[in-house]
Amino acid sequence: MSPIDNKHDRKEVDLLEYWRIILKRKWIMATFCLVLLAGAAVKSFTTTPLYRATSSVLIDEPGSSLINIQDILNYGGYYRTDYLGTYFNTQLRLLTSRSLAERVAKRLNLAARPELASSRERRSGLGQRLRNIITMKGTSKAAEKQSGSAPSAQSASYYYVVQSGLRVQPVEETRLVLVSYVSPSPLLAADIVNAVAEEFVTFSVETRYEATRQTSEFLSEQIASLRDELKRKEEEMQKYGQEKKLLYLNDKESSVVNKFAEVNSAYTESQIDRFKKEAVYRELKSLNVDTLPQSVSNPTIQALKTTYTQVKSEYEEKSSFYRPDYPEMIKLKARLESTRKALEEEINKAVGTAEADYRAALKKENSLLALLESERGDVVRMNNNSILYRSLQIEVENMRNLLSTLVARQNEIQVSSQLGGLRTSNIKIIDRALVPASPFTPDTKRNLIMALLLGIIGGIGLAFFVEYLDDTVKGPEEVEKITGLPTLGTIPYLSGDRSRKIQKRYEDYGSYDFGPPATGDETVPEVTEIELVNYLFPKFAIAEDYRTLRTSILFSHADRAPKTICFTSTAPQEGKTVTTSNLAVSFAQLEGKVLLIDADLRKPRLHKIFNVRNHVGLSDDLTGKLSMAETVQKSAIENVWIIPSGPHPPNPAELLNSRRMGQLLAEAKEKFDVVLIDTPPVLAVIDPVIVSSLADSTVIVIRAGKTTQRGLVRAAEELRKAKSDIIGVVFNEVRIGPQGLGIPYYNYYHYEYSTGSSAGRRRKEEPGGGLNSSGGNAAREK
């Protein structure tokens, strides 16, 4: 098979494993799904039906309306550039505002609507009714008259009814807004939505018309006041010009002002020049040969500084090798001194030049300052009288322009006020709300479908979660993976219903040779327990499973079959005693002598299964009171002998660990073909560990769906510490089928041999026909 096929097979096995988990946990899934369906059904059928009415409103740009006064209020440009921002969002908020809701409540008179009255009666409890009775008790006719005289005030308090069910949703990339209202009453929902849209348009018109009216009144007052102020300013300007004789001003004053400006500019430039030269002078004055900075602007000084630095570095470098009186050192020192002297002279020369430039610049600045002061006096004298006149003239011109603008705006507002009665607005109702024919919630069908889907998905998830938390051993592969032990056989689970079907089928086929029952009765007994089932019903499938288990034990060793076999489990009630009993019957059917030893000295059960007395037994033999021959009892089943546990000893572990126990097993191996030992659970007491170390082989019986992985690993480790020969495990109470351990399903109700008897079938399965394939006491077929 190719790697691709192997990969495909592994994937298919994984899918089958998932399907097995789903079938195994189907009741968890079904319960979870039913709970969700029931909850969804209760929620859907108990929820009050709600109706939704929707209207569409167009919120256009404010400039599209005839009553627009944006130019008057000077905000039209702002709204147009930010229409879909602040302005649009503001209108959406206004749609859900409390003021608009109060207007709608008054318009519809919600206090008198029967739909709201009935809903309030449904919501009110007994306590609320009592409070209403106490409050209304003793109400006079005058109070009733007063209550009826102000229906609008009462309706306005119902604004919360409008706000609670109102929803506003703008349509993307459009100027449309969907206004909807949700209510148990379809008629009330449609009325409220239409009223909200109409009141919103009315509110917009009234708000903007009120702004127009207030602006008109304000402009009228400002125009009247501005005209009086303009008249007074014109008279004041004319009077001042006549007194100062400023009506015949010539162009001379213009040249004086220009000259003053030129002198002022020259003075400013001289100040800047003086600052620069003073900075150069102070920089050169503070220079020192040893601390001369690298950023000196004089190129001569910079060159001498570089030479001086190089000679000084050379002198300092050679001074570490030569003495000062060395000829070369004397030359270097002389050169250094001459360079230093030249640098100092150049610095002094530059300082002198910079100082001369600074003095000249300072002198020029002082002369320009004197000239500027002289020109300033002329300008002050010539313009002193004309400044106030010009200010009065400019103020009069500004007031005239402002008056002209206000008069024009007032005329526009008067026209807009006359158009206010047309109720034009940039907000328009596109579609009025219709009365909804059916509720939009609850959607029973959708809720049930969603609950079913969520129940299936959640149930599957819950099933896998429970499976993940399940630490029990689930299959042979898992046993081999965690312990390395093979699976010798699987015993199916026998339920009560299945037992009745088995009973009925055996009654229908009464001609079969079942063999003698344990009680000797000719009637077929009812199968209520799996104990001795292969003796009572040898052709039943479970009996065949025990025979398969017997064959696995016989061939567990290549050289010889084990003779003393210890059976144990990890915990109580896992079926080790039943497995030991039925295996004893299976071995006895090969006509070999089988001995059963009940080594469970704490809770023995073998004497009850085989209906023998337990007054003497293994404890008497181990304490030396009786011999093995005196404790062995013949059971009702042919070729099966049993040593019961005997009286309860105070020290079971010490007795089992005694030398007599080993002698007893050796003596039993000589007299019997196979010895089966029933022991307590490994994790409960130390007894099975002791017995397993004395036996030839050990078999661990585990119960499907109960034995934990940790318990099985611990049990195997304990037995291996005692050097026990563990030949494998037996799966007990396996639920066969798709939801079982993944074992192929066989119809255990219709199983029967195709030809011959059961003994003939066994003869084909077990070569040699005996208990010990290596020779010895060879058993004959029945």
Rounded to an integer in angstroms, the radius of gyration calculated over CA atoms is 58 Å
CATH superfamily of the domain at 482-488 and 553-742: P-loop containing nucleotide triphosphate hydrolases
Mean of the pLDDT scores?
A: 76
Strand order of the largest sheet: 5-12-11-6-10-7-9-8
Short key terms for the protein model shown above:
flat; eight-stranded mixed sheet; Rossmann fold; alpha/beta; 782 residues; 59% helix
Kindly describe this structure.
The chain is an alpha/beta fold. Among the domains are: 252-394; 482-488 and 553-742, P-loop containing nucleotide triphosphate hydrolases (Rossmann fold, 3-Layer(aba) Sandwich), CATH 3.40.50.300. It is 59% helix and 9% strand. It is built from 29 helices and twelve strands. It has an eight-stranded mixed β-sheet with strand order 5-12-11-6-10-7-9-8, with helices on both faces. A hairpin with a 5-residue loop joins β8 (633-634) and β9 (640-643). α6 (98-108) crosses α12 and α20 crosses α21. The longest helix is centred in the middle third of the chain and has 93 residues, at 327-419. It is flat, with a radius of gyration of 58 Å. The two termini are 45 Å apart.
Topology, element by element:
Elements: H1 3-24, H2 26-46, E1 51-59, H3 70-73, H4 76-81, H5 83-95, H6 98-108, H7 114-123, H8 126-136, H9 141-149, H10 151-156, H11 159-165, E2 166-170, E3 176-183, H12 186-244, H13 252-285, H14 299-318, H15 327-419, E4 427-431, H16 444-469, H17 476-483, E5 487-492, H18 496-508, H19 533-536, H20 541-554, E6 564-569, H21 576-588, E7 594-598, H22 606-609, H23 618-622, H24 628-631, E8 633-634, E9 640-643, H25 652-656, H26 659-671, E10 674-678, H27 687-694, E11 697-703, H28 709-721, E12 726-734, H29 758-765
Parallel strand pairs: 5-12, 6-10, 6-11, 7-9, 7-10, 11-12
Antiparallel strand pairs: 1-3, 1-4, 2-3, 8-9
Helix pairs in contact: 2-16, 6-11, 6-12, 12-15, 13-15, 14-15, 20-21
